[in-house]
Design a protein that fits this description.
Helix content: 25-40%
Number of helices: 9
Bound molecules: ligand 2P0
Distance between the termini: 17 Å
Order of helices and strands: EEEEEEHEHHHEEEHHHHEEHEE
Strand content: 15-25%
Number of strands: 14
């Protein structure tokens, strides 16, 4: 058995948003989501299983990590060890080639890369579907980074058993997408509300949560249909609806990810659109705005967004590939 392997994975940005979980163990999303995997930004992860039992050893961006990050890694590796019938402790080295607190989905690329490297290192002959299911159990958005281009993660069944498989699936390849994402970074501070806790608070407190659960599946289906038809203006309209409904639902629970710079960047996107540019925005569990635009317009859009007060810098990303083993590592 090959006991060491390395993998690379890229973050993704959702057009129709995942927000909310089924009320059972296993991290099953309550709504479907659809994302674009990004190129240019990557997590690289190496996993090696030893022969001795004991605590796993994690190095994150060159530094020894313990506490919650290590616990989440060990939780995934325990599933891999159980499936492969191995017991040895693992050494994990993982690094992002983009700032971890830049507002890009480092948990999506991180758990996707870890799932690919760990299953390969353990000698499991799993297809991408099984590996995506494994990634979802640690971070649902990570399930989508297994695949490139546009990717869908269906909602979990209403009351799945904990071992029910649920994986993402590719919808359109990266080569079919003439889109760019401009990430407008508005702060380098870590996010104020972790996604899992914020979702729980939304489910408990938001009077709009029921409305969100009703709306999200139909928004998602319409958005997917528009993408398959190549109607990017419609995709943009529905993606903005999805993001605003998600954030409205969170606001009704008493918190918001939006800051002044978030609103100013959104207004800039709307202004560019009024001038005829096919551009639209989305916002995730942080204050940064992500603008989607056809590639030909990306330089002008990036310049306009860079000039927004409160936007520290912009990062330009193209559609990217799914997670993969790095053979020569
Ligand atoms: C998404 N987000 O669809 C949504 C939109 C944030 C806002 O998926 O609890 O870190 O680990 O399953 O994957 C962030 O959620 O959450 C996320 P968990 P995850 O991209």
């Amino acid at each position: 058995v090959n006991r060491e392997a390395a993998a690379i994975a890229h973050p993704n940005i959702a057009l129709s948003k995942y927000w909310g979980k089924r009320a059972v163990p296993g991290n099953f999303p309550a709504v479907p989501s659809l994302s674009m995997t990004l190129s240019g930004l990557a997590t690289r992860t190496r996993v090696g299983f030893g022969n001795e039992p004991g605590p796993d050893e994690l190095r994150l961006n060159g530094e020894r990590a313990a506490g919650e990050p290590l616990a989440r890694v060990t939780e995934m590796l325990d599933r891999v060890r159980a499936a492969a019938r191995i017991t040895g402790r693992a050494k994990i080295e993982t690094a992002n080639d983009f700032p971890t607190a830049s507002g890009l989905a480092s948990s999506a690329s991180g758990f996707a890369a870890l799932a690919v490297a760990a299953t390969r290192a353990a000698g499991l002959q799993w297809d991408s579907w099984r590996v995506s299911d494994l990634a979802r159990r640690s971070s649902a958005s990570a399930a989508r980074s297994l695949f490139g281009g546009l990717v869908e993660l269906p909602a979990g069944e209403f009351a799945p058993s904990e071992d029910t498989l649920l994986a993402a699936r590719p919808v359109l390849p990266a080569s079919a997408l003439d889109l760019r994402v401009i990430v407008c970074v508005t702060t380098d501070a870590p996010k104020a509300h972790g996604s899992s806790n914020a979702m729980r608070k939304t489910a408990e407190k938001s009077r709009l949560y029921g409305a969100w659960l009703n709306l999200a599946p139909s928004l998602h289906e319409s958005l997917k249909e528009a993408a398959l038809a190549g109607d990017w203006m419609r995709v943009g309209e529905l993606a903005e609806d999805s993001a605003l409904a998600m954030h409205g639902c969170a606001l009704a629970a008493g918190f918001s990810y939006f800051r002044d710079a978030t609103m100013m960047a959104i207004e800039t996107v709307r202004g560019l659109r009024q001038q005829g540019m096919p551009i639209f925005f989305t916002v995730d569990a942080g204050p940064h705005v992500k603008a989607f635009v056809e590639s030909a317009h990306a330089p002008r859009a990036a310049q306009a967004l860079n000039d927004v007060p409160g936007v520290l810098r912009t990062t330009l990303c193209a559609p990217g590939d799914g997670a993969a083993v790095v053979e020569d590592a």
